[in-house]
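To whoever is on call:

I kicked off a structure prediction for a single chain this morning and the downstream step that reads the tokens threw a length-mismatch warning. I double-checked the sequence; it's 208 residues and nothing unusual in it as far as I can see. Pasting both halves so you can look.
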Amino acid sequence: MNISSAQSYSPSLLEPREHSAGCQCPGCCKKGLEESATPLSKESNETKDESKEEKSSKVEKSSQDLSPSERQQVSQLQQRDSEVRAHEAAHIAAGGAAISGAASFTYQKGPDGKLYAVGGEVPISSSGGNTPEEKIAIAKQIQAGALAPANPSPQDLKVASSAAVMEAKARQELSLENQEELKQKAANTYEENQNSVNSHKEQKLLEA
């Protein structure tokens, strides 16, 4: 039977109503256990509460306000991050087909533990032009992409300068091709005229 000792125990008529300090009856044993267990339980709860407060304090410390200098640094990093991302986005928007991949960024960790973009680049390609006209179009696209940001970097200006040289060379090629075409047309016209004159002479000779 599952009956506790406290429920099954009843003192006999021979037992005194007041129990001695060292009494080992079930009632006194249970009372002693309860009295001894209570402070331990309370102490345990207090320890748990203290650990919660300590943990909460640690969380607050990790997320507490930064120092003035750290806040200023975070603000500068946030501004730099926005500028860098807008800069590279402008390259991509204006670069068109000359852009050969996605933007990549260089990051710096701030006092708040977050990563901020402090530098970036966008890959470009000048290949694919088979004719002077195509090369000129690509060079113009590269220049537009390089100079698209409000404040082009020295590297942007260098790329734009290289694209301008590329465009100039392509225009020279185009000019030479046009000259060759004009010469060829002139030669063809002269040959046609000569053939026409010779044919006219031959016709007169036959008539004579």
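Update from on-call: the warning came from a stale cache, not from the record. Cleared it. Sanity check on the structure: The first helix runs from residue 5 to 8.
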